[in-house]
Amino acid sequence: MYDIYLFIGCRTLPALDELMQKVPALADPDVQKRILQRSPGPGFLELDLTDDVATTLFQLLRSRKANGYIVLAAYRKPGIIREQAETIAKRVIAELHVARIPDHTLGPVHLVREEPVAWTFGAVSEEWVKEGRIPGILFASVDKLDGHIWQPEDFEQLQAGHYRQEKEKDTKERT
């Protein structure tokens, strides 16, 4: 099952009548209020949706200027907490440091941002900052469900709406 995570809600409520027959929760005034919430972002809509319904609803929301992701509903209750993710990120960043920029001095690992699907940590490279590189940070994004490391292409797939099918397939193969 899937949910929709919104960074920013719709400007106006789209026509949801057809979808309400498949997802009665869309008639709930609290759900509609979250759909319309612009700031702060509404976050998870707390809906359990099939892939096709999630895709249809997300397209409707985007047509009204909402922005977000379709993600597995399991991400609402992550299996990896921030402290666990930080431990994983420290190990990965240390490995990346040795492999990619062993002569650089790195600052401490810190939380850079939280995505609905991952914790992203980073460590500043003093040399990259002196060179004017932006952001000048070595990153590691740790998945909130199983702790694997997200790659840049994973985020690209998430934004394009393709990551969820691959993740669901991976999850089924592990069980």
Helices and strands, in N-to-C order? EHHEHEHEEHEEHH
Distance between the termini: 15 Å
The helicity comes to 40-55%
Structural class based on helices, strands and sheet pairing: alpha+beta
Q: Strand fraction band? A: 15-25%
- Write down how many β-strands occur, each being a DSSP E stretch of 2 or more residues: 7
Biggest pleated sheet: 4 strands, antiparallel
Overall 3D form: elongated
Mean pLDDT: 93
Identify the strand order in the major beta sheet. 4-5-6-7
Please state the CA-atom Rg, rounded to the nearest Å. 19 Å
Number of helices, counting only DSSP H or I runs of 4 residues or more: 7
**Total count of domains:** 2
Sequence stretches where pLDDT stays below 50 over 5 or more residues: 171-175
Oligomer: single chain
Short description:
With 175 residues, the chain is an alpha+beta fold. It has two domains: 2-76, no CATH class; 82-174, no CATH class.
Index terms:
2 domains; 21% strand; 7 helices; four-stranded antiparallel sheet; alpha+beta; 175 residues; three-stranded antiparallel sheet; disordered C terminus
What does this protein structure show overall?
With 175 residues, the chain is of the alpha+beta class. The chain folds into two domains: 2-76, no CATH class; 82-174, no CATH class. The protein has helices spanning 17-22, 29-36, 51-63, 82-100, 126-130, 152-160, 163-174; strands spanning 2-8, 43-44, 67-72, 110-114, 118-124, 137-143, 149-150. The strands form two sheets. The protein has a four-stranded antiparallel sheet with strand order 4-5-6-7. The protein is elongated and about 60 Å long. Residues 171-175 have low confidence and may be disordered.
